[in-house]
Design goal:
The protein is α/β, with parallel strands linked by helices. It has helices spanning 2-28, 46-54, 65-74, 91-97, 107-120, 147-155, 175-193, 207-212, 222-225; strands at 36-39, 59-62, 79-82, 98-104, 125-131, 160-167, 198-200, 217-220. The protein starts with a helix and ends in a 6-residue tail after the last helix.
């Protein structure tokens, strides 16, 4: 029990520190709002996520379908968001446990998720289009020029709701320039769809640039959870 108490204190400290940093960066950027914090819990045990729940966290993000599914089954009161790549053949599973999917990048995946929601007989699934800023779709994402077309496809699918765009800056890129350009793309798409859309961008390493560029959701793992457990 002592270990669980220690871990709870560690997580509480990580959360407090991360929230304070986000608020400070938002203030420095002249923002009147503070981005939503989505703790990334991949590779960490369900026990850690249960402790986050005790600390008032309701939503966490995962990268791998199988790991996320097992945790979601163990912790039905927590909302799990999928931020990693989704294979089309896994869409049926993802549609059952995911509270949202941040990595939709093909028509095929969107259609499969839409069908998965039907099969699961659940409510609408919120999704984000993942943008591949440099057009190298091997790492996931749709090239910027393909975003509008994919957005229209999602709009026409009855079980999906497009919430915004997600981006991870390519290595060696200028993160600020990537975030600013995808923020502009998000706003332009929002004008076309006649509703505000969110940008999901920013992790521990590039938090300041993402917040300055107007991200609505930041995804932080190590700052809250600490180093990945070994093994």
């Amino acid at each position: 029990m002592h270990n669980a108490d220690n871990r709870r204190d560690e997580l509480a400290a990580g959360l407090k520190e991360t929230r304070a940093l986000i608020e400070k960066l938002a203030q420095e950027a002249g923002r009147t709002d503070v981005p939503e914090l989505l703790p990334v819990t991949k590779f960490h045990p369900a026990a850690d996520i249960a402790l986050l729940g005790e600390l008032g966290i309701t939503d966490v993000a995962e990268n791998r379908e199988q790991e996320a599914r097992a945790k979601a089954e163990e912790l039905p009161d927590m909302r799990f968001h999928m931020i990693g790549q989704v294979q089309t053949k896994k869409a049926n599973h993802v549609a059952r446990w995911a509270h949202s999917v941040h990595s939709v990048d093909t028509e095929k995946l969107a259609v499969a998720l839409n069908r998965g929601v039907d099969n699961a007989q659940r409510d609408i699934l919120p999704v984000f289009i993942q943008v591949s800023h440099d057009g190298d779709t091997a790492r996931g994402g749709v090239a910027p020029e393909g975003v509008e077309e994919l957005a229209q496809i999602i709009e026409d699918l009855p079980n999906l709701e497009l919430r915004g765009l997600m981006v991870v800056p390519p290595l060696e890129s200028d993160a600020k320039q990537v975030f600013t350009s995808v923020r502009e793309l998000t706003d332009k798409l929002g004008e076309q769809l006649k509703r505000p859309l969110l940008l999901s961008a920013g992790m521990s390493a590039d938090l300041a640039d993402a917040i300055a560029s107007g991200t609505g959701i930041v995804r932080v793992g190590t700052g809250i959870m600490g180093a990945r457990p070994l093994g």
